[in-house]
UniProtKB/TrEMBL annotation:
Belongs to the CDS family. This is Phosphatidate cytidylyltransferase. GO terms for cellular component: plasma membrane. It is an enzyme of class 2 (transferase). It is found in: Cell membrane.
Length: 311
């Protein structure tokens, strides 16, 4: 059909309210419009219910593992590291044909997480360096073609997932670790909720239209307000620190969470993919839920280490 053609075409799909198969329908047919709207609402309802169910389930698992025993939360973080590494490697392969040193990254990622528990950043440095050397040796087998590209991608995966997860481990094993982790998580959750509410109600000015068209400055303001409130309450309740320090904590965590969202949006746009994976119904892959949490773990570790010093 040429761009100027207005001829009706047979409609054969089974969208609710649509014309029967083989019956011509014009683009402006009210039945078509109503059918499409109903179909979209139905799909949205199913996706929203699935997303809420998955979110509640993940929250329950995190909270239980954190409150029962710290080692359980570290075990959960180790699983997150393995799945996240696998998903990101798969996204790079699907979107750009990049082959990272996946076996080395899976083993090295676990070393980063588990050595960070008893040995702190010294253990992280040892595991990271060993993993880098392992990636170099593993990739040498495939020859010189795309060597720099593939090694660069392997290092990106190593830093983006295992290294940033290691800072969540450091939050956990520090004195008052439960309070530190809850402050980190609650500020990010408050950021998401506040940003969504403000964006829906008042979102008018796009924040980064070429990266994430749905993000608005009004939504970011809502995220900041909610995050600062959460931060103030958390530092006062968990650590007995003056509430105004919590506004700084919340503001920095919200800014980093937003940056993490935008960075992952850029990665997906560059790779030409919608989601990192399909593990979580209504959410995409696990990495699609970690985009704001991963970089924020480092900032939470750094800022809380200054506001609530580790003895």
């Amino acid at each position: 059909m040429t761009p100027s053609s207005d001829a009706a075409v047979p409609v054969t799909s089974d969208l609710p309210g649509e014309a029967p198969a083989g019956v011509p329908a014009t683009p402006g047919d009210p039945k078509l419009v109503r059918g499409m709207k109903g179909y979209k609402r139905s799909r949205l309802g199913r996706n929203l219910i699935a997303a809420i169910a998955v979110g509640v389930g993940l929250g329950a698992v995190i909270l239980l593992s954190l409150l029962i025993v710290a080692e359980g939360f570290v075990l959960l973080l180790a699983a997150v590291t393995a799945i996240g590494t696998w998903e990101l490697a798969g996204a790079l392969r699907r979107g750009a044909g990049i082959e990272v040193s996946l076996p080395v990254l899976l083993v090295g990622g676990q070393a980063v997480v588990w050595l960070s528990w008893p040995f702190g950043l010294h253990g992280v440095a040892i595991a990271l360096t060993g993993t880098v050397l392992g990636c170099l040796i593993w990739r040498m087998r495939a020859g010189a073609a795309h060597f720099v590209r593939d090694i660069g991608a392997s290092l990106f995966v190593l830093v983006y997932v295992p290294l940033l997860v290691a800072f969540a481990v450091q939050l956990t094993v520090a004195p008052e670790g439960v309070g530190r982790v809850l402050t980190f998580l609650l500020c990010v959750i408050a950021s998401d909720v506040g940003g969504y509410a403000a964006g829906v109600v008042a979102g008018r000015h796009p924040m980064a239209p070429t990266i994430s068209p749905k993000k608005s400055w009004e939504g970011f303001a809502g995220s900041q307000i909610a995050g600062m409130i959460a931060g103030s309450l958390c530092v006062a309740l968990f650590f007995g620190v003056p509430w105004y320090w919590g506004t700084l904590v919340g503001a920095l965590l919200v800014a980093t969470a937003t940056l993490g969202d935008l960075v992952e949006s850029l990665v997906k746009r560059d790779l030409g993919i919608k989601d990192m994976g399909t593990l979580l119904p209504g959410h995409g892959g696990l990495m699609d839920r970690l985009d704001s949490l991963l970089p924020t773990a480092f900032v939470a570790w750094a800022v809380l280490g200054l506001v609530v010093p580790v003895a």
